[in-house]
Amino acid sequence: MNIAHGVYKHGLISAQCVKTHDGGYVYMYLFLFIIFCFPETAVNAQPYPVKAIRLVVPVPPGGSNDILSRIAAQAMSPGLGQAVVIDNRAGAAGMMGADNVAKSAPDGYSILNIQASFVTNAALRSKMPYDTLNDFVFVGMMARAPLLAVVHPSLPVKNIRAFVALAKSRPGQINYGTPGIGSHTHLSTELFRRMAGINIVHVPYKGIAPALTDLMGGHLQLAMTSPPSVMSQVQSGRMKALAVGSAKRSVFLPDIPTIAESGFAGYQADYWWGIAAPAKTPDEIVNRLAVELNKALQSAELKQRYAAEGAEPAVMTREQLKQFITTDIARWRQVARDANIRPE
Question: What range does the domain containing 304 cover?
Fold first, then answer.
């Protein structure tokens, strides 16, 4: 009666309803009272999601990272019943976008596209605006793509073993280009260099495009990059493809051997993409996102569109992805320490 009387004082029910003492009516009007006086509580009680979800992509629009994220966002939206909207926040080697999500409300409406730089930043930098492992929960893997080793066509080699033999005969005379010091490509090539025991010279660029231009011009002899960025040059004979860095042969390049099977067992380096959310995001929300992501990755249309970017859908549970990231941070940190690589 006291509760009903309080509701009456707020003007939500009539005196007639209070006098009935009917429990059903009291509870019904109490629910209306809660909605009226505490609208946030009512909204939060609705099934997630009730509004658009922001997927932060920490690079400018146009690259593979952005394109793959847009494809996944479009594929996830129908299952979620809400739009997944891309928010490009480039800067500080991807840390600007990651920091934005790390400091967002853990309600499932701000999520982050993560990729190799998410790991290499943690491996190389002692001071960051967020904690890579503790300020995020991981939703799942999104895609993977091989790292392709290409050389200038003038090099008298047809495979990666022959390249290593040539490099050993010409110590310090062969140059390789990367998108910059401390980049994923730099660390991947350095790992290969050390495993092969060769002395080749690193030439950093501001992005992979100018490095590939110099490779075609004969100023460089080696680069590691994504297949879509060089396949037309390989097919036209302006570059030669020697090997892929992935653990198994690429479905897009089945005749190109892996570096591991070419005599360098244990070598693996590829591109990958996934999704994370702020730490303390409720498990039920993370699980819902994971379910919809994995459903999207089974889509024939998504697979076709990913293939155009040289990528394959890759499924990992949230636990598997966290373990993958933890292991990769330790691996690249060791490579950087051994090679004395420091971020620019």
Answer: 53-145+272-339
Number of residues written out for the chain? 344
Q: Are residues 228 and 157 in the same domain?
A: yes
Q: Which residue has the tokens 């092969």?
A: 196
| pLDDT tens column, 47-103 | 999 999 999 999 999 888 899 999 999 999 999 999 999 999 999 989 999 999 999
For 250-297, the DSSP string reads -SS-TTSPBTGGGT-TT---EEEEEEEEETT--HHHHHHHHHHHHHHH
The residue whose two tokens read 């080793």 is 149
Count of the separate structural domains present in the chain: 3
Please state whether the predicted TM-score (pTM) of the whole model is above 0.70.
yes
79 plus 101 within the same structural domain: yes
- HSE-CB at 157 with a 13 A cutoff on CA atoms is 23
**Nearest-angstrom CA–CA distance, 312 and 260:** 20
Please tell me whether residues 229 and 160 are part of one structural domain.
yes
List the one residue out of 285, 41, 343, 15 whose CA is nearest residue 139: 285
Residue 211 lies inside a defined structural domain of this protein: yes
Q: How far apart are CA 110 and CA 105, in angstroms?
A: 7
- Six-digit token string for 302: 């998504």
Reported as a single tens digit per residue, the pLDDT across 166-193 is: 999 999 999 999 999 999 999 999 999 9
DSSP-derived pairing of the beta strands 312-313 and 136-146? antiparallel
CA dist., res. 27 & res. 170, Å (int): 85
Which of 221, 102, 250 is closest to 154 using CA atoms? 221
